[in-house]
TrEMBL record:
Pfam families: Amidohydro_2
Keywords noted in UniProt: Lyase
Native source species: Streptomyces vinaceusdrappus
Stretches assigned to the Amidohydrolase-related domain: 6-330
Record-given protein name: Amidohydrolase
Length: 332
């Protein structure tokens, strides 16, 4: 039976979350940091771009019409990363993740056969992560979306161990989607904050998970890396060399870094058929999932056509188009 076409990288906008945090201590400062990192030219484009796409991120009927036009049967919907709000204190963070989880679940519930959802957890407060993950799953969501780091914490931080354990135990999907890049003003022109910043953050975050041994300790984790995992899959040979040549690089993980790519999942959003073919080669055709970044301008309006340009063998094409995601989501 032909699997459904499943897009694992699609976003929902949650206005109630932004209303919740507006004016709270720390919110203005976080927006200032974001503005500085992006630069004025990017902000001038971002505003109209996002406003034009708000209807498709909030109105389920418009979302479904767009999916029909793309030939997409199912979307795995995650909150816009602008809703992370990792600056928030514990009380505010709990309100944010509860509201985000419930609102995302309500959005998806309007078309349960076609929309699956992911929630949020407050990475800045490790003690809340297990409870937040459980809350997301209780809403009927399939897992949660996380960024590449939280202020002062990398994903290799030992404080996250209970979270990894719980996610593995419950079979939750963890969608690794960066928001912002700590290279700051070095990327504040030509939209480098996104074009260079996002794949850099992906590569750094995945390297922390690999080199620290997180994937050794929690081999059942279901981590899906946005943007094809950034720069890491196409430069994994350098990581393997460091692991074998240097005691400090090889101390934390049991196997060559390249072997862990086959324990992760990656979306197909790399904007280059040659890179997509390489991603399939190094990670395996069973580990790549269709992704569009719906409906943002750095995504693709036709993810299936983008996948076809890679000219994969038919079995691999259909696996990436939807078979892998259907299995991951336990959909027949």
């Amino acid at each position: 039976m032909t699997p459904p076409t499943v897009d694992v990288h699609a976003h929902v906008l949650l206005p109630d979350v932004e209303s919740l945090v507006a004016g709270l201590p720390g919110h203005a400062e976080a927006k200032e940091v974001d503005a500085r990192r992006n630069g004025p030219a990017a902000l001038a484009v971002n505003g109209p771009m996002v406003r034009a796409r708000v209807p498709r991120m909030t109105d389920v009927a418009l979302r479904l019409a767009s999916m029909d036009a793309q030939g997409v049967d199912v979307q795995l919907v995650s909150p816009s990363p602008s809703h992370y709000h990792y600056w928030a204190d514990e009380a505010t963070a709990e309100k944010v993740y509860r509201l985000a989880n419930e609102a995302t679940a309500a959005h998806c519930a309007q078309a349960p056969d076609r929309l699956r959802g992911l929630g949020l957890v407050p990475l800045q407060h490790p003690g809340h992560l297990v409870r937040a993950l459980d809350h997301a799953l209780e809403q009927g969501l399939d897992g949660v979306e996380i960024s590449s780091h939280a202020p002062g914490r990398e994903l290799s931080d030992p404080a996250y161990e209970p979270f990894w354990s719980r996610a593995a135990e419950r079979g939750a999907i963890l969608f690794l989607h960066p928001f912002g890049c700590t290279l700051d003003e070095r990327l504040d022109r030509w939209y480098l904050s996104n074009t260079v910043g996002q794949p850099t953050e992906n590569a750094v975050a995945l390297s922390h998970l690999i080199f620290s041994g997180v994937l050794d300790r929690h081999p059942e984790l279901k981590i899906v890396a946005a943007h094809g995992g950034g720069y890491l899959p196409t430069h994994i040979g350098r990581s393997d060399h460091a692991w074998s040549a240097r005691s400090d690089a090889g101390a934390g993980c049991a196997h060559p870094p390249s072997s862990y790519l086959r324990r992760l999942y990656f979306d197909s959003l790399v904007h280059d058929p040659h890179v997509l073919r390489e991603l399939v080669r190094v990670a395996g055709a069973d580990r790549v999932l269709l992704g569009s970044d719906f409906p943002f301008d750095m995504g693709t309006e036709d993810p299936v056509a983008a996948l076809r340009t890679a000219r994969l063998p038919d079995a691999d094409f259909h696996a990436v188009r939807g078979g892998n995601a259907a299995a991951l989501l336990r959909k027949d």
